[in-house]
Amino acid sequence: MLAGMMMNRPLLISNLIDFAGEVYGTIPMVSQTVEGGIHRYTYSESRKRIAKLANALIAMGIKPGDRVATLAWNGYRHFELYYAISGIGAVCHTINPRLSPEQFIYIVNHAEDTALFFDTTFLPLVDKLKAHWKPIKHYVAMTDKAHMPDVPGLLCYETLIEPASDQIVWPEFAETAAAALCYTSGTTGDPKGALYSHRSTVLHALYSVSSINMAFGAGRSILPVVPLFHVNAWGLPYSSAITGTSLIFPGPRLDGPSLFELMELEHASGSWGVPTVWMGLLAEMKKRGRKPVGLKHVLIGGSAAPKPMIETFEKEYGVTVIQGWGMTEMSPLGTVGHLLPAEEDLDFNDRVELKAKQGRRVYGVELKLVDEEGNKLPHDDIASGELFVRGNAIVSGYFKNEGATSRALDKDGWFGTGDVARVAPNGMLTIVDRTKDLVKSGGEWISSIDVENAAMAHPGLANCAVIGIPHPKWTERPVLVAVKAPGANPTKEEIDKLLDSKLAKWQLPDDVIFVESLPIGPTGKVSKRDLRTKFTDYKLPDLK
Ligand code: ADP
């Protein structure tokens, strides 16, 4: 092989913010703050504060490879921490505040975090768990002097960075060095750490902007509802810097009316989040009879985007929906549901059908379907099997967890997603279900996503989830647990009738149960595990 003769510069995260600070220096960044009020500055000002913070971290004794934890909302200081921590070669460990106390204690100790930066909102949580966190040496409140809680030994973010220089020459090191750490929400067993490298992060940002190009660019803005503590807000801090896209951080206010207000005030052109968030925003849009001025697209990911949600955004409000599929272990982007020109010309209903699928793989991600024996299945949109993935922004194992690592990868080094899927010859991916959420009935599999999608077409439902209930003859039977829309009173018979017209007989739920609300897990998605626990004593109608 003849070697190419091109430079080999390391792909480092610090280059992204240097680039944005210089090339997109005047582009604004906006944050709803924890203290109240809106904070505004530019990429260039952000770059200066990031340098100050990086110098302050070095002065505190943070060394390359150290894990520095954050416990914070989406805001400018959190964004600064992302760049300053990774920039000096340390590892930014974002923690999801919605984890259970046991998980919290486990991951801080497992990650061996040496410092914790937190929004003052989380002071009670920090106070409660502090005694259990052995490795943490520094606690820093992400606020200014005026808002500092009176806690002995607690450091103040603004006081820390104030005397530091705003100039820095970033250290250069191997692009394979660890940059960020995010634990999965641990729906099975202990949370597992995905340890992103500089290289994987920069490549993932490039993959994202090349696949979702309509969302990015100077003059465009994105409001990330997806938290910085969940898979790096789907990579937005990095992809926005490369493209000069404004970020509008919503802080702690994630309810429909607050999101609407901020989007409108800042003319957000896009917003990214999980379906539960959009239910709140859509309710506010319905109340006002319009969309926030300027909103052009929403990216829906994390769980399946219900068809009626896509229809409402597109038909009633003229907001383009892009569905994304991925996972913590994939940085997270795997597929994106934008349509090709000929597909854009289809009838509205056919377009919605396509948008309800999970989309096509982004450049840099390869997909493989396998049957239970590990044999490769065709991409014919008929065969369904477990989805395996491969690529430079996909984990090669879990941090300090050999057992989980060996279970996650197949003999050829592909990562098993735990999702069951079909892939069409044109590359369209359909997620049938999570392996553990499929309902196993009489030797057949029922996709809980299919049944939920069919039921959500009823205007009287605000949300629903299907779970499998054990059955002595059929192994499991599906049951639909539903939340009524405000002011609506749908009946079980109406839902049954609707589903009967859309599903095969054996796929129909054995029961429809109305509840006040569905349990929401730490990443903002409906938690089927909690729902199953809630229904452990439930008896199916034919077994009563
Ligand atoms: P966690 O596992 O911590 O809840 P992740 O965000 O890593 O969080 O979850 C990844 C899983 O979420 C995927 O494996 C898949 O089951 C589900 N998922 C993500 N996006 C979609 C989507 N667009 N449609 C259906 N399922 C999705």
Explain what you see.
The longest helix has 18 residues, at 43-60. The chain has three domains: 9-207 and 228-244, 3-Layer(aba) Sandwich (Rossmann fold), CATH 3.40.50; 361-434, Luciferase, domain 3 (Roll), CATH 2.30.38; 439-534, 2-Layer Sandwich (GMP Synthetase, Chain A, domain 3). The chain has 544 residues and is α/β, with parallel strands linked by helices. β12 (270-273), α11 and β13 (297-301) form a beta-alpha-beta unit. It is globular, with a radius of gyration of 23 Å. 49% of the residues are buried. α1 runs antiparallel to α2 (43-60). It binds adenosine-5'-diphosphate (ADP). The site of adenosine-5'-diphosphate has 21 residues, from β14, β19 and β20.
Task: Offer a quick outline of the entry.
By secondary structure, the protein is α/β, with parallel strands linked by helices. The chain has 18 helices and 25 strands.
Keywords:
544 residues; alpha/beta; Rossmann fold; Luciferase, domain 3; GMP Synthetase, Chain A, domain 3; 3 domains; 7-stranded mixed sheet; 18 helices; globular; binds adenosine-5'-diphosphate
- Tell me what the CATH architecture of the largest domain is: 3-Layer(aba) Sandwich
Q: Could you name the CATH topology of the largest domain?
A: Rossmann fold
Whole-number count of domains: 3
> Globular, elongated, flat, extended or rod-shaped: what is the shape?
globular
Number of helices: 18
**How far is the N terminus from the C terminus?**
71 Å
Measured by DSSP, the beta-strand proportion falls in 15-25%
Radius of gyration: 23 Å
